[in-house]
């Protein structure tokens, strides 16, 4: 869905009618404030980061294996979908808008993603190495998140500022894309997004069916990717 289509949707036009009755200066200020309130791709990714961190904290803050397994599965589910979404949407934007530096950033981040979950996602909370391995994984992930939030995303937002509405449009597309991607890591898909995208779409339904057999928080059989 394009930014232009969203901005001109009937629901949004209805919401803007009171604004359009204002004097021109007030109208411009109000519309500008509304646009600034829209979620950017940076805000969307940071929301994911905080959610992933919260699931990690649930695992390491208890010794209850059942609680650890449920939130460990949720951690895997969130991180895998976040990573696939970044690989298919955000990293190509790095390459497109940030030149050679963006290509280096994308290449480095893709390699980190493929290493993060491939072992932990298949472990059981009954394994003595379950929590230690998750802590090791999170140590690497925190560095990845720090680099992304402090360096990569500010650089991307600066480049996208030349294209009004692009960051907000990316945020909406990222949310929709996460409903279609796999919910597990698949290192065998490789690091080339030209292969990763089509293969991911083939693997996603398999992952979503397998999620029915996994235990998640609040006794949910399986999270619904279309709602998160």
UniProtKB/TrEMBL annotation:
Residues annotated as transmembrane: none
Pfam families given in the database record: Hemerythrin (PF01814)
Hemerythrin-like domain span: 40-156
InterPro entries linked: Hemerythrin-like
Superkingdom field: Eukaryota
PANTHER family documented for this protein: HHE DOMAIN PROTEIN (AFU_ORTHOLOGUE AFUA_4G00730) (PTHR35585:SF1)
Protein name as it appears in the record: HHE domain-containing protein
Highest classification ranks of the organism: Eukaryota, Fungi, Dikarya, Ascomycota, Pezizomycotina
């Amino acid at each position: 869905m394009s930014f232009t289509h969203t901005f001109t949707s009937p629901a949004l036009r209805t919401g803007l009618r009171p604004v359009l009755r204002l004097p021109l200066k007030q109208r411009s200020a109000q519309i500008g404030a509304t646009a600034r309130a829209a979620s950017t791709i940076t805000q969307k990714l940071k929301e994911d980061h905080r959610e992933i961190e919260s699931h990690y904290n649930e695992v390491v803050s208890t010794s209850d294996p059942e609680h650890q397994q449920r939130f460990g599965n949720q951690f895997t589910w969130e991180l895998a979908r976040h990573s696939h979404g970044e690989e298919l949407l955000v990293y190509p934007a790095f390459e497109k808008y940030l030149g050679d530096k963006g290509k280096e950033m994308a290449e480095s981040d893709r390699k980190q993603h493929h290493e993060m979950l491939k072992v932990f996602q298949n472990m059981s909370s009954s394994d003595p190495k379950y929590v230690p391995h998750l802590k090791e994984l999170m140590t690497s992930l925190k560095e990845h998140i720090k680099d992304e939030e402090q360096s990569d995303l500010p650089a991307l937002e600066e480049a996208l500022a030349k294209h009004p509405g692009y960051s907000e449009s990316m945020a909406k597309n990222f949310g929709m894309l996460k409903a279609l991607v796999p919910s597990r890591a698949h290192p065998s898909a490789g690091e080339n997004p030209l292969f990763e995208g089509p293969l991911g779409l083939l693997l996603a339904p398999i992952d979503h069916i397998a999620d029915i057999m996994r235990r998640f928080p609040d006794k949910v059989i399986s999270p619904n990717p279309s709602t998160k």
